[in-house]
Each structure stands twice: as structure tokens, then as C-alpha cells.
């Protein structure tokens, strides 16, 4: 069990694309490259939110738990992804100022020593995300950045601690976790919720006041908070600050850790391969030179950095996850090869089977080839059958 990757390879060889293991008191089924698209495509049969909610007692910590999955997905698309062009300037400025603040210019040779790169990255990534979530005025406060940066790690304790009690009775660990939070014994979200409520209240009251005073000439702030305030359910006479803070908690949980982890890994991958630095730097200089708009790089030109994109995709591919994206089976399901999994069973994706496959990845799949993905028509942000980092309910990507 000390070499999980090898163990998974052995299981795959002996039992085939789909096999089950008894782990922490329950049987978990691992699905390999031939059938994992069924987990992503059949959201009527496999529910990633259900499994996540069982592990992390969001319902005990927040007013709305981790919210409704369909709403979350829609909000990410409409309020964030579709508006990234609007936020480019602010995000670049924030990234620059945060890099200066948390790393600096380094010594006379431009060298800086970074201790605990993940922790530094969470603060750097939290800065632009806080800016477009709660607004420019609140994102300048250190307590908000700390909440954004540390929230996920504090909550993830519920995932990090092995569910030992499930050996006694399946689900007992989740039940006990909920009691601990509800009884007030330990709630790692509380201090972050309080910080969020304080800043949200500040902004909401200010915006409602100013909107009334300035009327049509009021300049609408552009951020997620304002989007939330314009939803039908928002009641200006009875603002539910706890509920808004809960919504932010879901988005902070989803956004900061995954992004910071990917950036930290990409930086370490680059630091280990200094021979690629110049090439990547020149690509950026070239594109910056062509597209520069008063020091800001337009959103679209980031897509033109093909080498950088491929490097990042390769870094995410080789992040080291062996199995990930657990899902709960919501109704008895028969895979296309005839194997069956019953309702309430947990299935997981066998990542190493996908990432170590020569047909899917090209030659030497185990080695880091930074430009492996150039001209493959899949940017680092896109799921495909050989790249599963973002999960989600997608089928079309697998058909390409
Ligand atoms: C490199 C960065 C990121 C990675 C690798 C990543 C990966 C993931 C994964 C694996 C899931 C679970 C989906 C599944 O298992 O099917 C997820 C869900 C989610 N992600 Fe990301 N993510 C990233 C960045 C972000 C950012 C920046 C945001 C928001 C600004 C975001 C918002 C969400 C939300 C809201 C969900 C949950 C949707 C729901 O409740 O259904 N993610 N992400």
C-alpha cells in the first residue's frame, strides 16, 4: 500500500477496467479509461455533489449548505466565466500587486526564496478572486484575503481525516462530524463566515445607500456580490447576510484551492526545468508586445500563449492524483460492459489509468513533456478524454 500507483496498475491488470476495493469500511469501485466517461456523462446516475456533501458537513456549517449544484454551475458561468473579459485588467493588477507583496523582487539577482509555496500561492490567487467576488473596496483588507486563502484548508480537515468510524458503521463518521459542528464543539467555518458577513454588510449597506442617493448616475460595481444583490430573491429590506456569506463560502471552497494548487505545481514544475524558462518567457514577451493595451494583456491574447498553455496542461496532468472525482450512485446502474453498481455505492475515477496510457497521452506518458499538448486543440482549461482535471457533467468533450 506504500506504492498506490503500482497497486492500481496491478489491480487494473488483474481485474480489468472496473474493479472494487474495500477502503475505510466501504467498497469503492474504480473506473478506468474505457468507462470513466459514463461517470461524467450520466449525471442522472452519478452524483459528485452527494458524495462530497456526505464527507464535508456543509449543511451543518452554512445556512444553505453548499448550495444547489445547478445554481452553482449557472452562477459560475454567467457571473464569472462569461465576464472574465471584463475583469482582466483588475485581475492582472491584483496578481501583480499580490506577487510583489508576498514574494517581492528578490535579491540583486532577482532571486527570491519561497517557503511553503502552496501557502504563498493561496494568498496570491485569493487577491484577484476576492476582488471580483466581494469587490475592490473590501478585497484590500488582510482579514478578507486570509479568509479566502485559508478557508478551504480549514474545512478540508473533514476530508483529510480518514473516516475511521465508518469501520463501525458506514456513514457514522459523517454523522459524528455533523454533531461536532452543530453542537458548537468545532466549526472551522465560523470565523471565516464572521469575516465575510462583516465585509458583505459593509458593502451592501453602502451600495444600497449610494444607489438611493445617486439614482441613475450611480456607478454599478462590477463583482459577484453585485450579481447576487440583483437576483430576484435578494430582499433589500431584510438582507440575509449569513445566506450571502454561505454562497461565497461555496465559491471560495471551489475556486481557491484548486487554482492555487495547480499554480503552485506549475511553478515547481518550471523551477525543476529551467531549460524551458527562456522559451516560455519569449513567447509571453512576443504576445505582450503585439497585444499590449497600456500594460494590460487583453483576455483573448492569453489563449495565444500555446507553449505556456501546454506546459500548464502537462503540469496539471502529472499532478499526481491516482484516483479522484468520487461520485455517489443515485440509482442502480449497469456499465456498458455489463458490470453493475447498486444505488448508494461510491465510484471513483482511476486517473492513473488515463494519465499513464500511451494511446491517450502519446509516447512516454509517464514523463513530463511540456509541449505535448501543443496544436491538440484542447487548452489547459478544457476537459477531454485524456484530461480529467475539471470533472463536471460533460459528454461532448468525450465524443471529440
Ligand atoms: C485549476 C483550477 C480548477 C480546477 C482543477 C477545478 C476542478 C474542479 C473539479 C474537479 C470540480 C468537481 C467536478 C466534478 O467532480 O465533476 C469542480 C467543481 C466546481 N468548481 Fe472548479 N476547478 C478549478 C477552478 C475553479 C474556479 C476558479 C472556480 C470559480 C471561480 C471554480 C468553481 C467551481 C464550482 C462552483 C464547482 C462546483 C459546481 C457544483 O456545485 O456543481 N472552480 N472544480
Automatic annotation (TrEMBL):
User: What would be one Pfam family of this protein?
Assistant: p450
Q: Which cofactor does it need?
A: heme
UniProt keyword Metal-binding, yes or no: yes
Keyword terms:
Iron, Metal-binding
> What does the record give under GO molecular function?
heme binding; iron ion binding; monooxygenase activity; oxidoreductase activity, acting on paired donors, with incorporation or reduction of molecular oxygen
What domain of life?
Eukaryota
User: Which PANTHER family would you find in this protein's record?
Assistant: CYTOCHROME P450 (PTHR46206)
So what family is this one in?
A: Belongs to the cytochrome P450 family.
Q: What is this protein called?
A: Cytochrome P450
Amino acid at each position: 500500500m506504500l506504492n498506490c500507483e503500482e497497486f492500481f496498475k496491478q489491480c487494473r491488470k488483474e481485474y480489468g477496467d472496473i474493479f472494487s476495493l474495500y477502503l475505510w469500511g466501504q467498497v469503492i469501485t474504480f473506473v478506468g479509461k474505457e468507462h470513466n466517461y459514463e461517470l461524467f456523462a450520466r449525471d442522472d446516475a452519478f452524483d459528485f455533489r452527494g458524495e462530497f456533501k456526505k464527507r464535508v458537513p456543509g449543511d451543518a456549517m452554512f445556512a444553505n449548505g453548499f448550495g444547489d449544484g445547478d445554481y452553482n454551475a449557472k452562477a459560475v458561468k454567467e457571473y464569472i466565466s462569461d465576464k472574465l473579459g471584463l475583469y482582466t485588467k483588475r485581475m492582472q493588477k491584483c496578481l501583480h500587486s499580490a506577487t510583489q507583496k508576498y514574494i517581492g523582487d528578490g535579491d540583486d539577482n532577482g532571486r527570491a526564496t519561497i517557503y511553503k509555496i502552496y501557502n504563498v500561492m493561496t494568498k496570491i490567487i485569493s487577491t484577484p478572486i476576492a476582488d471580483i467576488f466581494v469587490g475592490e473596496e473590501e478585497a484590500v483588507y488582510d482579514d478578507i484575503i486570509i479568509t479566502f486563502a485559508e478557508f478551504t484548508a480549514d474545512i478540508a480537515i473533514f476530508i483529510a481525516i480518514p473516516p475511521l468510524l465508518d469501520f463501525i458503521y458506514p456513514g457514522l463518521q459523517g454523522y459524528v462530524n455533523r454533531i461536532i459542528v452543530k453542537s458548537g464543539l468545532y466549526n472551522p467555518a465560523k470565523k471565516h463566515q464572521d469575516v465575510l458577513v462583516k465585509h458583505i454588510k459593509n458593502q451592501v449597506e453602502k451600495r444600497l445607500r449610494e444607489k438611493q442617493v445617486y439614482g441613475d448616475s450611480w456607478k454599478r460595481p462590477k463583482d459577484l456580490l453585485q450579481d447576487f444583490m440583483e437576483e430576484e430573491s435578494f430582499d433589500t429590506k431584510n438582507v440575509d447576510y449569513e445566506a450571502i456569506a454561505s454562497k461565497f463560502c461555496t465559491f471560495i471552497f471551489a475556486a481557491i484551492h484548486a487554482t492555487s494548487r495547480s499554480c503552485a505545481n506549475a511553478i515547481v514544475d518550471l523551477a525543476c526545468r529551467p531549460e524551458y524558462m527562456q522559451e516560455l518567457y519569449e513567447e509571453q514577451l512576443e504576445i505582450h508586445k503585439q497585444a499590449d493595451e497600456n500594460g494590460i494583456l487583453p483576455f483573448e491574447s492569453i489563449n495565444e500563449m500555446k507553449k505556456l498553455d501546454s506546459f500548464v496542461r502537462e503540469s496539471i496532468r502529472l499532478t499526481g492524483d491516482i484516483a479522484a472525482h468520487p461520485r455517489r450512485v443515485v440509482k442502480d446502474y449497469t456499465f456498458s460492459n455489463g458490470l453493475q453498481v447498486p444505488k448508494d455505492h461510491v465510484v471513483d475515477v482511476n486517473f492513473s489509468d488515463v494519465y499513464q496510457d500511451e494511446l491517450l497521452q502519446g509516447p512516454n506518458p509517464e514523463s513530463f513533456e511540456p509541449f505535448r499538448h501543443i496544436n491538440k486543440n484542447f487548452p489547459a482549461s478544457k476537459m477531454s478524454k485524456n484530461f480529467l482535471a475539471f470533472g463536471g457533467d460533460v459528454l461532448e468533450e468525450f465524443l471529440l
